[in-house]
Amino acid sequence: MTPSPRVVIHLDEREKAALALRNTKNLVEGLAGAEVEVVAHADGVEGLRSDGANVALMDPLAGRGVLFVVCENTLRSRNLSEKDFPGYVGTVPSGIVELVIRQAEGWHYLRP
């Protein structure tokens, strides 16, 4: 039996948030059972905020099990908190470290 693919999606540009989310939707729909994590840092966190246009894309993905995490280093540097994001968005101490860890664990890396 082939294990389900695990994919980490790197988001560091606000302008690419909608593209990354559409790619994530296509991935989830095309690869049944895929485990997907979207890691946002730098300007990418802005594309996942609660008051942004991308929540309509994020909500159904979260409902399908996609994990969303934002970088705590970035939040501190921008005076943001978890409250600025939908409740299903978690945090990691460092977005870059999270990407490296996931790749070391064998996750496939995607950067739209």
UniProtKB/TrEMBL annotation:
**Pfam families documented for this protein:** DsrE
**Source species, domain of life:** Archaea
Which InterPro entries does the annotation name?
Answer: DsrEFH-like (IPR027396), Sulphur_relay_DsrE/F-like (IPR003787)
Name of the protein in its database record: DsrE/DsrF-like family protein
